[in-house]
Amino acid sequence: MNPLVWSASATLFLFGLAALILRRELLAMFLGLELMVLAAVLALGETAARLGDSEGFVAVLLILAIAAAEAVVGLTLILRVHWSGRPPETEALRELKG
Amino acid sequence: MAAWIIPLAALAAAVFAALMIFQRTLYGAAICFLAVILQAAALLFGCGAKLLALLLVLIYAGAMAVLIVVSIQTAQRPGTPIWSRSGLPRSLVLAGFLIPLAEAAALLLGLGAPQSAAGAGDLMLGRMLFGPYAIASEAVALLILFAALAVI
Fold first, then answer.
1. Number of domains in chain A
2. Does the residue A97 lie in any domain?
3. In terms of pTM, does the model score above 0.90?
C-alpha cells in the first residue's frame, strides 16, 4: 500500500464531498462529484497496480467509461435547467415537474 | 524511480482540490479540477498503471474537462466576467500546468519510470476486456451510446 496515494485519494474524496455540500451552483457540485469519482478511481487503480490484478484494471476502465456517460447526462441536465430560465442554484430546483 | 514525483503529485492534487472548493468563478474551479486530474494521472503512472494514467488523461482531461468548460460557457449569464478578482492567481494557474509537464518529462525521460513489466499487464487487460468481461464492455459501450442519444 502506498500511503501517499491513499492519503491523496482520501483527501480528494473529502474535498469533493465538501464541494458537493458547500457549493450551491449545479456545475460546482458536479465538479465535486467528479472529484469523488476520481478519488475512487485513484485508490482502485493503485490497488490494482500494486497487486497486479487485471480484474481491478477492468473495473477501473468500466468506472471511467460509466463516469464519462454520467458526466454527459449530468451536464445535459444542468444545461436544460439553464435553458429553462431557472437560476443555476439548487434552491431553484424544488420540483421534478413544474 | 524518482522519489519526488509521487509526493509532489499527491501534494499538488490536494492543494488544487482545496483551491477548487473556494473558487468563486466556475472557470477557476474547472482549471483546478483539470490540475487535479493531471496529478492523479501522474500518481497512477508513478504506481505503474501506465495505461490507466493515459486513459485518465484522455477521458477526464481530454473529454470531460472540455465538456465541463463548454457547459460553463453555455450556462454563463451574459455579462459575467470570466475571471473575477477572487479567481486563481496566475502563478497558481501556471503551476497547475508546469508541475504536470515537469512530472511528465521526468517520467518519460525515465527518471521516474515505474519498475513494472511493461506491456504484460496491458496484454492481460485486453484479454480480460474481450474475454470474460466482453458483455460488460459492450454494456458500457451501449450506455455511452444511449447517453449520447439522450443529449441529442
1. 1
2. no
3. no
A77 in any annotated domain: yes
Contacts of B75 in chain A (CB under 8 A): 27, 78-79, 82, 88
**B48 φ/ψ sector (left φ>0, alpha ψ -120 to 50, else beta):** left
Query: Which region holds residue B113: left if phi is over 0, alpha if psi is between -120 and 50, else beta?
Result: beta
Name the one residue in this structure whose C-alpha cell is 522519489. Answer: B3
User: Does the pLDDT at position A33 exceed 90?
Assistant: yes
ipTM summary value: 0.89
Interval A5-18: pLDDT, tens: 899 999 999 999 99
Domain boundaries, chain B: 5-116, 118-152
Domain containing residue A35 = 3-92
B101 near A CB under 8 A: no
Nearest CA in chain B to A47: B47
CB of B140 within 8 Å of a chain A CB? The answer is yes
